[in-house]
TrEMBL record:
<keyword id="KW-0963">Cytoplasm</keyword>
<dbReference type="GO" id="GO:0005634">
    <property type="term" value="C:nucleus"/>
</dbReference>
<dbReference type="InterPro" id="IPR005123">
    <property type="entry name" value="Oxoglu/Fe-dep_dioxygenase_dom"/>
</dbReference>
<dbReference type="GO" id="GO:0005737">
    <property type="term" value="C:cytoplasm"/>
</dbReference>
<feature type="domain" description="Fe2OG dioxygenase">
    <location>
        <begin position="215"/>
        <end position="314"/>
    </location>
</feature>
<dbReference type="GO" id="GO:0016491">
    <property type="term" value="F:oxidoreductase activity"/>
</dbReference>
<dbReference type="InterPro" id="IPR027443">
    <property type="entry name" value="IPNS-like_sf"/>
</dbReference>
<dbReference type="InterPro" id="IPR044861">
    <property type="entry name" value="IPNS-like_FE2OG_OXY"/>
</dbReference>
<dbReference type="Pfam" id="PF14226">
    <property type="entry name" value="DIOX_N"/>
</dbReference>
<keyword id="KW-0539">Nucleus</keyword>
<comment type="similarity">
    <text>Belongs to the iron/ascorbate-dependent oxidoreductase family.</text>
</comment>
<protein>
    <recommendedName>
        <fullName>Fe2OG dioxygenase domain-containing protein</fullName>
    </recommendedName>
</protein>
<keyword id="KW-0479">Metal-binding</keyword>
<dbReference type="InterPro" id="IPR026992">
    <property type="entry name" value="DIOX_N"/>
</dbReference>
<dbReference type="GO" id="GO:0046872">
    <property type="term" value="F:metal ion binding"/>
</dbReference>
<comment type="function">
    <text>Involved in the regulation of shoot development and salicylic acid (SA) homeostasis.</text>
</comment>
<dbReference type="InterPro" id="IPR050295">
    <property type="entry name" value="Plant_2OG-oxidoreductases"/>
</dbReference>
Length: 365
């Protein structure tokens, strides 16, 4: 309630305008406390239930899917570990994924330099329009969030590249080249993973793979500045990702937490590791066999954190529905048809909380 008073009224609107410029900008003015706008209600704060008695209990090593053998006679083993990772865990790491370390390092490095640009330069790309193909923004949904989160981001739409690339930032001077190279490798890996995922579900791959070829690809570079009071706020609130898969790269500073059996566990990741998670659209397509899990991001006092999330799926105007091959008398259809436009309408019309978009698509029996 306090928060609403803060956003209304002349002086406070000016303050809101300042918050819209992002957390990095706010921090540059020298902060020793988290402003009220970023303070979550007590029950939504990290460790609202108190700190874990043994912090290492709450760190998990994500299951590893090793792609080294994906094109060998051992493919069946790879598929079995992939199926288990999607069905039992929802989040996993991929190794031997074929993306050169140099491409990954260059992507992280140029992302860092983007966030180091002077505010005037970064803000050229600032937009509150959630469908803008290139957008520098802050919080989770800055038009709707009552409480802001401790995150700035650069979102780059990668498809169709011929149309979106001319809109991408021109500085740092090597951003386009590096981000294009990274996004092309990510697309290749996504195609390889999806073909394998479809095989694990025992559905026809041809037509769906063709649709993925022309599907959406969103690259979101997240920047979470160091925070003076990390117990009061979050870098990202609990959410699930749209799309079929998210391929996530992060810089080695921990912060990603996944909800498992009602508890938040921190993913223990090596710098440069690629994390993959099942998105809402794959949960729908698989008729609930593979789960899109809630996750969130915590921040810390010691250092900023960066991640690059690539969300991929079907074409923006394509319809996502449970595969007819996974629906029968024993497995009734559990989700209604959905598309990207419906999702955008949903997120722009309300404050996104948890998995409520996915829940809005569920059929109750
Ligand atoms: O920064 C992270 O580790 C997670 C980012 C994320 O969940 C997202 O961009 O959807
Ligand atoms: Fe996410």
């Amino acid at each position: 309630m306090e928060m609403e008073l803060v956003v209304k009224g002349g002086r406070d609107e000016e303050t809101l305008e300042k918050y819209m410029k992002g957390v990095r900008h706010l921090c540059d003015s020298g902060l020793t406390r988290v402003p009220a706008k970023y303070i979550l209600p007590a029950t939504e704060r990290p460790y609202a239930q108190g700190p874990p008695s043994n912090p290492s209990d709450l760190k998990i090593k994500l299951p590893v899917v090793d792609l080294a053998d994906i094109h060998t006679p051992n493919r069946a083993h790879v598929l079995a570990s992939l199926a288990e990772a999607c069905q039992e865990h929802g989040f996993f790491q991929v190794v031997n994924h074929g993306i050169p370390a140099e491409v990954i390092e260059k992507m992280i490095d140029v992302s860092r330099r983007f966030f180091e640009l002077p505010f005037e330069e970064r803000s050229t790309y600032m937009s509150a329009d959630i469908v803008a193909p290139v957008r520098y923004g802050t919080s989770f949904n800055q038009n709707r969030d009552g409480v802001f989160c401790w995150r700035d981001f650069l979102k780059l739409s990668c498809h169709p590249l011929s149309r979106t690339l001319p809109l991408w930032p021109t500085s740092p001077a090597d951003l386009r080249e590096r981000a294009v190279s990274y996004s092309k490798h990510i697309k290749g890996l996504f195609m390889e993973l999806m073909e394998a995922v479809l095989e694990t579900l025992e559905v026809d791959t041809g037509p769906v793979m063709e649709e993925f070829g022309e599907g959406i690809q969103m690259m979101v570079v997240n920047f979470y500045p160091a925070c003076p009071e990390p117990d009061l706020t979050l870098g990202m609130p609990p959410h699930s990702d749209f799309g079929f898969l998210t391929l996530l790269l992060q810089d080695g500073v921990s912060g990603l937490q996944i909800e498992q059996k009602g508890e938040w566990v921190t993913a223990d990741l090596a710098a440069g590791a690629l994390v993959v998670n099942v998105g809402d659209h794959l949960e729908i397509f698989s008729n609930g066999r593979y789960k899109s899990l809630l996750h969130r991001v915590t921040v810390n006092t010691a250092q900023p954190r960066m991640s690059v999330a690539c969300l991929l799926g079907l074409a923006a105007d394509g319809v996502v529905r449970p595969s007819p091959q996974l629906v029968d008398d024993d497995n009734p259809r559990r989700y209604m048809d959905t598309d990207f436009a419906t999702f955008l309408q949903y997120v722009s019309s309300r404050e996104t909380k948890g998995k409520n978009f996915l829940e809005s698509r569920m059929l109750r029996s």
